[in-house]
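Hi all, posting the design record for the shared folder.

TITLE: backbone redesign
STEP: 1 of 1
STRUCTURE INPUT:
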C-alpha cells in the first residue's frame, strides 16, 4: 500500500484487496492471443477457391511477441486444450491489471486537498 498524504478510501482499499486476492489465485499464464483460422491455399484448382469455398483448417494459431517480433505458432487441438487454462489465466491477469489501473487513475476523494495553483499562491510547499 503506497504511503503519502493521499490515501485510498475504504471502498478503494476493499477493491484493492479483492484484486490482490484474485492475482494470488492466478497460476501460470501464456502471453499473446489465440485465434482459430481457416485459409485458402495457393493452388488455383483447389476446393478452397470454389464457390462456395471449402477452406483449409480450422487451425489454432497462437500469436505473441518475442524480442519485438510477432511470432505465430500453430497448435494442435490437443495442445490447445492442454494450454487453454494458461491462455485463460493470461486473459484474467490482463483484466485484473486493467481494474487496478482504473482504480489507480481515479483519484481518491479528499476534502482537504487544494488545487495546485491555490496552494502555490498561498506559499504552501
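Okay, here is what came back for every position:
SEQUENCE:
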Amino acid at each position: 500500500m503506497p504511503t503519502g498524504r493521499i490515501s485510498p478510501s475504504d471502498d478503494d482499499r476493499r477493491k484493492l484487496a479483492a484484486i490482490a486476492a484474485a492475482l494470488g489465485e492466478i497460476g501460470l499464464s501464456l502471453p499473446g492471443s489465440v485465434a482459430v483460422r481457416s485459409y485458402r491455399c495457393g493452388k488455383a484448382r483447389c476446393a478452397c477457391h470454389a464457390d462456395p469455398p471449402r477452406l483449409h483448417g480450422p487451425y489454432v494459431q497462437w500469436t505473441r511477441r518475442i524480442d519485438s517480433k510477432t511470432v505465430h505458432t500453430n497448435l494442435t487441438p490437443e495442445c490447445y486444450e492442454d494450454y487453454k487454462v494458461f491462455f485463460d489465466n493470461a486473459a484474467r491477469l490482463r483484466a485484473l491489471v486493467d481494474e487496478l489501473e482504473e482504480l489507480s487513475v481515479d483519484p481518491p476523494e479528499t476534502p482537504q486537498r487544494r488545487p495546485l495553483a491555490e496552494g502555490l499562491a498561498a506559499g504552501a510547499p
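COMMENT: Residues 77-105 form the longest helix (29 residues).
Let me know if anyone wants the other runs.
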